[in-house]
Design a protein that fits this description.
Blueprint lengths: L2 H55 L5 H4 L21 E5 L4 E3 L19 E5 L2 E8 L8 H51 L14 H49 L7 H28 L8 E3 L1 H18 L3 E5 L7 E3 L1 H18 L5 E9 L2 E8 L33 H11 L3 E6 L5 E8 L4
Parallel strand pairs: 6-8
Antiparallel strand pairs: 1-2, 1-4, 3-4, 5-7, 8-9, 9-11, 10-11
Helix pairs in contact: 1-3, 3-4, 4-5, 5-8, 6-7, 7-8
């Protein structure tokens, strides 16, 4: 059974139960209130007739034969009120039963406490008798019965009308509620068939609206992921093709005798092979990070030791380019529970990038400081900086600010992506701060508490 039909049946059943209870309650309440109203009127008329009888005869003699009165008496339609089980009980002022009822016989003296619920019958301000009358056994005339029948008929018609409205409203609400679900189902099937540009309309701010928003976000993220994967495949092919082309070109030239097998030629082939090896290792590191299989051997490590080692490793390259390597260390930094080899790899990637983009006679500063719950390592260069539109993407794989992708403008484009994976694997954060023409700062924030 479809969801829409289930909702319609649910609305209909709820409406049926609600209308039935309301109609039954209204019918019973109307009958009770109307009966009490009519009975009160007839009871007051009966009291007046009894008072008139006593006033005319100056006693109660013959009241049992004269009752029930033929005109205006609510009990005139039923006989047998001379029995003890009748709904009318009339006594004189002393409590002797004149008209039996309520379990008392004619001439019987009723208890005093029973008269506490009786209605006094007064003539000229003097109590001449007591009346006890209850609605039990009270009949209705045809006009009253017809009135109640009309009321019940109107309630039935109202209940039927309410059910029809409930059904129509249920159909409308069911279609309204299931429409977003149908749209999402259709869009999901289209996505499963490969159409990733599917969007559904967000028609409300309730749970269905949140579901539609989540679907649109999922669809956009999925399309972005597919596009990134395609772009990464193209980038890998592009990056691998360059060293392979160089190696094949040189080996074919030597094979054809065009290029002599010299030491310089072998060095070129070796450098390109090493470049291929590094690229494959980087891709392997990234794939393991994506799969959550990046192994980190963490132990308490002084951060300043890692900084000093990185400076020593790159100082010779910096001197060749007349670049100053500066260190700004904060004292008393706490040891961090990190993998020193992986963090050293991150610092190596950052210093390599900084040396690549820092001009001659520039400077690179490696600084450390403690913040709230973290230790920050900053690598700041005096290079040309990064354009604002490129800054959010520099940690993407194979992304380079030089769209021509020349080797002289940078490496494979994997260094920052690897750095980000390693830092986040430690539970830390990494980001870039830069303005075009004013250098670039890469910030690493590692947690002090063990991750």
């Amino acid at each position: 059974m479809r969801l829409g039909l289930k909702l319609i049946l649910a609305f209909l059943i709820i409406g049926l139960i609600g209308v039935a209870f309301v109609a039954l309650f209204a019918s019973r309440a109307t009958e009770s209130v109307f009966g009490s109203f009519i009975f009160d009127q007839y009871r007051d008329a009966l009291i007046d007739q009894l008072a008139d009888y006593y006033d005319t005869h100056e006693n109660w003699v013959g009241i049992d034969e004269a009752f029930p009165f033929p005109v205006g008496n609510p009990f005139a339609r039923k006989r047998g009120f001379d029995r003890p089980s009748g709904p009318i009980l009339l006594t004189n002022n002393e409590g002797n039963v004149l008209i039996p009822g309520h379990g008392f016989m004619h001439g019987e003296m009723i208890p005093h406490h029973t008269l506490e619920n009786a209605i006094p019958i007064q003539v000229d301000g003097e109590v001449v008798g007591w009346l006890i009358a209850t609605p039990e056994g009270f009949g209705r005339n045809p006009a009253e019965t017809l009135f109640l029948s009309n009321i019940n008929r109107m309630l039935v018609f109202g209940a039927i009308g309410a059910l029809v409205v409930s059904l129509l409203l249920g159909i409308f609400l069911a279609r309204t509620l299931t429409r977003p679900i149908r749209e999402i189902t259709t869009a999901t099937r289209a996505v499963a068939d490969g159409d990733l540009e599917q969007k559904v309309s967000v028609r409300s701010r309730d749970e269905l609206g949140e579901l539609a928003t989540s679907f649109n976000l999922m669809s956009a993220k999925l399309a972005q992921s597919i596009n990134l994967r395609r772009q990464m495949t193209a980038d890998i092919a592009h990056e691998l093709r360059t060293p392979i082309s160089v190696i094949l070109g040189h080996t074919e030239a030597m094979h054809d005798g065009i290029l002599p097998p010299s030491e310089e030629t072998f060095d070129i082939i070796r450098d390109e092979a090493l470049r291929l090896e590094r690229m494959v290792d980087d891709l392997r590191t990234l794939s393991r990070a994506d799969a959550g299989e990046l192994i980190l051997t963490c132990r308490p490590t002084p951060v300043q030791d890692l900084v000093d080692q990185a400076i020593k490793a790159y100082r010779p390259q910096a001197r060749k380019k007349d670049i100053q390597l500066l260190v700004e260390a904060s004292p008393d930094l706490p040891d961090l529970n990190i993998d020193p080899d992986r963090i050293a790899q991150v610092l190596s990637n950052l210093l390599s990038n900084a040396l690549r983009y820092t001009p001659q006679d520039g400077e690179i500063t490696l600084s450390t400081k403690q913040t709230v719950g973290e230790v920050e390592i900053r690598v700041r260069d005096s290079g040309p900086g990064i354009d604002p539109e490129d800054l959010p993407n520099i940690f993407d794989r194979f992304y380079r600010t030089d769209k021509s992708r020349q080797r002289e403008s940078g490496g494979s484009g994997l260094g920052l992506a690897i750095a980000k994976s390693i830092v986040e694997g430690h539970g830390g954060r990494i980001w870039a701060e830069s303005e075009s023409g004013d250098g670039t700062t890469i910030v690493i924030a590692l947690p002090i508490e063990p991750h």
